[in-house]
Design a protein that fits this description.
The complex is a heterodimer of chains A (361) and B (632). By secondary structure, chain A is mainly alpha-helical. Chain A has one domain. Chain A has 15 helices and 3 strands. In chain B, helix 11 packs antiparallel against helix 23, helix 14 packs across helix 16 and helix 15 runs parallel beside helix 21. The chains are: A mainly alpha (361), B alpha+beta (632).
Chain lengths: 361, 632
């Protein structure tokens, strides 16, 4: 099959192009006059490469990919172990691999691979025939790479594995029993983790979230400054490249974690509402594609993808506004970064093909 | 299996879709809360941290000498400060900051607290006039304490170093202690004159601070300026000092302690004023090291004391002119009156000695040879209150009124004075024998060199009481030329020409053939009176040489020149230097030599060896002083 743009879903395609354009503009404004002045160019290159990869995958039958997901999954585990052994440390986390001039963050792709494999395994039989043991096994397939990522330690990326677990109730429905068991289990794991596993800085982040004034010089300061920038934007914003908090550098890490605050300050509430609306259409459209899918695996993949994208949006946009705890996870198509951007486009490529297959049958 | 027929999966996906939109709505609500409801409050916070009002300190006026040499200049300097708005952040960290700066923590805390409550936007200075090391240290400190900043503000440069330290004084910031005493005259942390001319003329010199509204980035660096109220520089002033003469006077003291003053007889302007040992005001521009503090504040020679206006010296024989004047005006003697000097004489049952055996001496001879017996005779015939009245008439009992701070009034004893200052009841009575000592300038007499010079100026002008002053003129803002300041008023006193002529003749004799004949130079026409005042009680001559230096006599010389049409009057005191004619008179002669001869032959640059580089004329002053020409 010759690669063709016809395989693309126009709604999803429009959303992605719009988000990538807004994100790149925001990066341009955020980087102005700093050492990050050229990041927007690099991000544009990532976007172009990503779009190419997306078109390529959209023209590749997703069933072929799903069938080969076992070796890919195993390879991803090997790479995650390699990262722990050979990775380089960036801001406290050993999550990067250097490959001749490039730095890759394999965990960004690993969660999509895990989703692919779990979707494939669960979709082999009709939902009613999937046993409890099989569901538990699927959960284990998610949790194992997630633990490897936690070991780096990268709490943010590890968190983005959890939407895959959404597939379990999706397949079997939600029973109150299980909800109760889930909550109990979460509380137990959370308590044990708090006591024995969480690093002091992670505990500090959660405490700071509960009381932002607690640490006005560190993480609390960043969120404090971010909220000032967002609020300063008001209804209409201060104008492109004219956000005072952004341009005067009061806003911290404004090309990565806090890039959305730049958008919020310069474009105001209307700009924020526009961006969030596009994200809403984007998520909704992925779930609509799931409904049209030809096979269960494809539907599961779309649902998981919507979950992962949704969690990114919720955590990042919520975090910079001080509504959820500070966790460094990227906002899709806004936050600068090659590994994450490429991964998002690859996942979308699979979704596009699912749409195409569902339509053409 | 056709998934599109699976109703359960579809409905579950519908739930997910709804959840996605709920999440989006939740985020929209969060942003709406921040950007619509709390927008005003957050915008105010944003402005608060980005828009600052900073004070731009006004440069103080430049100080020139009478010919336009820069004695005090300004330069742009860097200072480590805490800006007003950062004081709140700094307070909790005051202790660690004090430890890093090696200063007193309590003091720093107090300064921060006071500065927070003070009016205006003055920054709190921690380190002044940073040099390269200081700047490096400041940058290290700024990394640890982000609330610190480096401010650019003008700073003083005292060009002549020690040349006129006591006259010019120095500046410093208004500390909480000074602030508490200033009754609102000063702002906290303001730079003001702390001594000398800088203090006495602070109002003219200080100028008005300006203000800038600026945009700063997260490091407090200025990014943009959007409101400027220019600082108004202080008035530049000209001193009556002549740098060349000042240099001659300073150099002639060398290692000796003492003071000298030269007064311009045209208007009372102080042409030179030196107090030795001197000090360099530049050292007070930095935080003082303990070594420096010890050297300047704990030094028994008290280098910071301006001996010319604050040192009270027994005038010795230089006082004899006043005693003679008193006797002549009272009619006790006439210029022709003769007494006999046999080298010793008993008054009130006690034997008094003279330095020589002068035989029959007239008034003129008595002054020329400094015959003590002659003046003991006057002291026996005069009442101490009469001498005091004459001293008061010729302005010695009061302050001279010079425009320098903390001038001391001369001490001229009389009955009233003794009664007031007696420690015991028995000390209150004045004994006639004491008047004998007063008559030769010993006893309780204490005069500042400035007051002594002023008295000789009154003799030179035949009774004009000039007000010594240092402000010569101010620089006009329009033309940059000097405008002469009003001369402080002089008081005319009636001095009988016959009386005056005999005193003048006597002082001429001192130099021509009398006690100071070694300093005679026919071309100079210098006249005056030597003085040797005892610091300790009488010791016979054999032991004198062995006396510790600090107990040796003070040497004095006061007078005026030239005798025909006098131009300058002067007084020189050299502490513990022995006989007045030996050390003080030669200094006076050097002064006359420079002022009356050398200066005219080679007016610029001033001669007398190397003057500091600062004395190189700056091009912009060339024109100003050319038009002034010879000082009026």
């Amino acid at each position: 099959m010759k690669p063709s743009l016809r395989t693309l879903d126009p709604f999803l395609g429009f959303c992605v192009l719009a988000l990538a354009a807004l994100g790149t503009l925001t990066l341009y404004s955020a980087g102005r006059g700093t050492v990050h002045a050229n990041l927007w160019i690099r991000q544009s290159v990532f976007n172009l490469v990503g779009l190419g990869a997306m078109v390529f995958l959209a023209n590749t039958d997703h069933r072929r990919i799903l069938r080969r997901s076992l070796p890919v999954y195993l390879a991803s585990l090997v790479v995650l172990v390699l990262v722990l052994l050979l990775g380089k440390v960036v801001s406290g986390s050993k999550s990067w691999l250097s490959l001749g001039g490039f730095s890759l963050q394999p965990s960004e792709l690993a969660k999509w691979v895990a989703l692919l494999f779990v979707a494939h395994r669960l979709g082999r039989r009709p939902p009613e025939e999937v046993g409890n043991l099989e569901l538990l096994g699927a959960a284990g397939l998610v949790i194992f790479p997630m633990l490897l990522v936690l070991k780096q330690p990268d709490l943010g990326v590890a968190l983005t594995f959890t939407p895959i677990l959404l597939l379990l109730p999706l397949v079997r429905g939600l029973k109150w029993r299980w909800v109760a068991v889930g909550f109990l289990g979460f509380a137990l794991v959370g308590g044990v983790a708090w006591k024995y596993r969480l690093k002091p800085y992670q505990k500090e982040r959660i405490l700071t979230f509960l009381d932002p004034a607690r640490d006005l010089q560190g993480k609390g300061y960043q969120v404090h400054q971010s909220r000032i920038a967002i609020g300063a934007g008001g209804l209409l914003g201060e104008g492109f490249t004219s956000g005072s908090q952004t341009q005067l550098n009061f806003l911290p890490v404004k090309t990565t974690d806090f890039v959305f605050s730049v958008w919020a300050e310069e474009r105001g509430f209307l700009g924020v509402a526009l961006a969030l609306a596009i994200f809403g259409v984007f998520l909704s459209r992925i779930l609509s594609i799931a409904k049209e899918a030809r096979d269960a695996s494809a539907a599961y993949f779309c649902a998981g993808a919507a979950g992962i994208f949704g969690l990114h949006v919720l955590i990042n946009a919520g975090m910079v506004a001080g509504a959820v705890p500070t966790t460094g996870i990227p906002l899709p198509f806004f936050t600068y970064g090659g590994s994450s951007t490429l991964s998002f486009f690859l996942a979308l490529g699979v979704v596009m093909n699912i749409h195409h297959q569902g339509k053409t049958r | 299996m056709d998934l599109r027929q699976s109703r359960t999966l579809r409905s579950r996906l519908n739930v997910l879709q709804a959840a996605a939109w709920l999440m989006i709505l939740f985020l929209v609500a969060v942003y709406g809360w921040l950007q619509l409801v709390r927008a005003r409050e957050l915008q105010r916070l944003a402005q608060q941290q980005a828009v600052k009002v900073r004070t731009t300190p006004a440069p103080r006026g430049i100080i020139f000498d009478r010919n336009g040499y820069r004695l005090v200049d300004n330069r742009r300097a860097l200072h480590l400060v805490i800006q007003k708005e950062d004081l709140g952040t700094a307070l909790p960290q005051a202790e660690t900051l004090a430890a890093a700066l090696e200063i007193d923590a309590e003091g720093l805390k107090r300064r921060i607290q006071l500065s927070r409550g003070a009016l205006g936007n003055k920054a709190l200075r921690l380190l002044d006039n940073l040099d390269e090391t200081g700047l490096a240290q400041s940058e290290r400190l700024r990394a640890r304490f982000p609330f610190l900043s480096v401010e650019v503000a003008p700073s003083r440069v005292y060009q002549g170093d020690e040349l006129a330290g006591h006259v010019i004084g120095y500046v410093g910031e208004v500390t909480p202690e000074v602030y508490a005493r200033s009754n609102g005259k000063f702002q906290l942390n303001e730079i003001v004159g702390r001594s000398g001319f800088e203090l006495s003329r602070n109002e003219q010199l200080k100028g008005e601070d300006g203000q800038r509204r600026i945009l700063v980035d997260h490091l407090g660096r200025e990014v943009a300026l959007f409101g400027l109220h220019e600082a108004k520089p202080g008035r530049s002033v000209y001193l009556t000092l002549d740098a060349g003469l000042q240099k001659v006077l300073m150099d002639s003291f060398g290692e000796e302690q003492g003071a000298g003053v030269v007064i311009d007889l045209r208007d009372g302007g102080v042409l030179a004023m030196v107090s030795s040992p001197g000090y360099d005001p530049n050292i007070f521009l930095h935080r003082l090291e303990q070594e420096t503090v010890d050297l300047y504040f704990r030094n028994p020679s008290r280098p910071l004391l301006n001996r010319a206006t604050q040192g009270l010296y027994p005038p010795g024989s230089t006082y004899k002119l006043l005693v003679a004047l008193s006797a002549l005006e009272k009619g006790i003697i006439t210029p022709e009156t003769v007494f006999h000097c046999a080298g010793r004489k008993t008054f009130y049952g006690r034997e008094f000695r003279c330095d020589g055996v002068h035989g029959s001496v007239s008034l003129v001879q008595a002054i020329a040879h400094s015959c003590d017996i002659y003046f003991y005779e006057l002291g026996m015939r005069l009442d101490v209150d009469d001498i005091h009245a004459t001293a008061a008439k010729y302005g010695m009992a009061d302050l001279t009124g010079v425009d320098l701070p903390h001038e001391l009034s001369s001490r001229i004893p009389n009955r009233e004075w003794k009664r007031r200052n007696a420690k015991r009841k028995v000390d209150e009575k004045w004994y006639a024998g004491e008047t004998i000592s007063v008559a030769i300038g010993q006893g309780q007499n204490g005069l500042t060199p400035l007051a002594l010079a002023r008295f000789y100026a009154a003799l030179a002008t035949k009774g004009k009481l000039l007000t010594p002053h240092l402000l010569y003129g101010v620089r006009s803002d329009e033309t940059s030329k000097m405008e002469v300041a009003p001369v402080p008023p002089a008081k005319e006193t009636r001095l009988d020409p016959v009386i005056w002529a005999s005193l003048d003749e006597g002082m001429a004799g001192v130099v021509r053939y009398g006690t100071a004949k070694d300093s005679y130079d026919a071309r100079l026409g210098m006249v005056g009176k030597t003085g040797t005042s005892q610091v300790t009680t009488f010791v016979d001559k054999q032991h004198y040489a062995k006396l510790a230096k600090k107990f040796r006599d003070n040497a004095l010389f006061a007078g005026y020149a030239p005798r025909e049409n006098p131009q300058i009057a002067f007084a020189v005191v050299v502490e513990n230097a022995g006989f007045g004619a030996k050390t003080a008179a030669p200094i006076a002669r050097k002064l006359c030599q420079y002022w009356l001869v050398d200066r005219l032959k080679q007016p610029l640059p001033p001669p007398g060896g190397k003057l500091p580089d600062a004395f190189e004329k700056k091009p912009e002053e060339e024109e100003a002083s050319a038009s002034e020409g010879e000082a009026p």
